[in-house]
Every structure is written in C-alpha cells, then in structure tokens.
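Workshop exercise sheet. Pairs work together: one partner reads the sequence aloud, the other fills in the structure field after running the prediction. Swap roles for the next sheet.
Pair: D.N. / O.F.
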Amino acid sequence: MEIKDRTIALLIDSDNVSQTYFSILLDELSQYGKVTYRRLYGDFTRPKANGWKTALLEYSIEQIQQIAFTDGKNSTDSKMIIDAMDILYKQNVNCFCLATSDSDFTNLAMRFRNDNLVVIGAGEEKTPQSFRRACDIFIRIDELLKTNNEEENNNAKISQTKLGENIINSNVTTLKNREDLIKIAKQIISDGADSDGRMHFSAFMNELWRKENDFNPKFYGFQNSRPIQFFKSLHEKNKAIFKLEKHNNTDLIKINL
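Structure field:
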C-alpha cells in the first residue's frame, strides 16, 4: 500500500502541542492519507488548554478530557496511550500520527512499528531524538510554521514590486542543502531501480524517509510540501535532474541521464 492511501489516527498531546500548529499539521497529513481520528487529549479545566477551543469547533476535533489527579504528573500521556491501543485493536487504521514533543511516547511508536503500521511523529525542535527515530516520518511543526510565515511575508513583498522583478526569499532560515539531498536521492534510485533505471516513487520516498525522516520540500525553499512536484522541479544546468513518469497509474522516478 502506498503511504498516500493510508487511514490515519491523529492523536494530539495538548500539554506539548499548541493549537497554532494544527492547520499546517492537517495539511501535511493530507499527502499521506485520510485522517479518520482527530483526538485532542488534556485537562481542559486548566487555562493552558483554552487556546484549543476555536480549533476544536473549526476542525471537528474530538476532545478527550483527562483530569490531572496529581500535580506535576502528566495524566494526558496515559490516557492517550490507552486510547491509542484501543484504536490499534479495532484494526481500522494503518497509520498513527502522534503529535507531541514528549519522549514518553517513544515506546508507543515502536509498538506500532512492530505491527507494521506507519508512525508519523509531529513535534517541535526540542523533541528528543529517541522519539524522532522511533517514527517513520517526523514533521517539524515549528519549522513548518516559521517557513510558512516567511513565505507569506515574501509573497507580500513580491505583490508590492513591479511586474517582472524577481525576489529571492533570503529570510528563510530553515533552508537545507539541496546538493546533499540530491546525492542521497540518486543513491537511493541507483540501489533500488529496475533494469530500466526506474523506481516506484512511493518506494523511493519510503527509503528517503528512512534516511531523512524529517524531509519536507519546504525546508529546501519549495513552495509546497508535495514531494513529487519538488523532485520534478530540481534542475542542474537547465536540465531536470530526475525524470518522473506514470506507468499503469503508478508514479515512477529515475535519474535523468
């Protein structure tokens, strides 16, 4: 099954994830499959969780109340883990997105991977490596928000310039080295291609995420998060680096020799 065809259970730890990230997270998840569960966990009697009220109504998020019985203890974790296991046993999803920056969910992510489920993590830069590496894909929601904001500012500047002027978004601080990525991508294709030099794009992306599980085209200056469009756009000396084509309704990628 291609990852874009999966059904996703999105479980959000409100103690560690702000409501400001939700719209960009939902947009990111749309490229991986259909989000069927949208659940938010926390103690909503506390002021900290009040910011989620608007998002709960706007995005039809199911609110799961968990009273903190003891000060200093994160009861949200245990409720979210129990709920996740209940969803697992119902066997009506094949992908989990755990939105948290808490390493306490590392074992849960590993448990899902042991059952051959795709695990997507979503958290801030502070998220421990143990949890990041337990996920198949890790979405840096704070970097995405920053990149989106810088992109909007840049678009505003472009709209104010004369027609034909070019503006390079030099304010984007999250840009990664494209040359390193291209080298990794070429190696993946060389190792996994068929006799015609072609590789299923879904298999290519799975291998790329294994090596760089926080990969996102926006971190390389691309305007959207769709990988297939990003790799189509890569050029060197006015020549496309990769060739993308369809065969029997399947996307294929090859190095453009």
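Discussion prompt: The chain has nine helices and eleven strands. What would you look at next?
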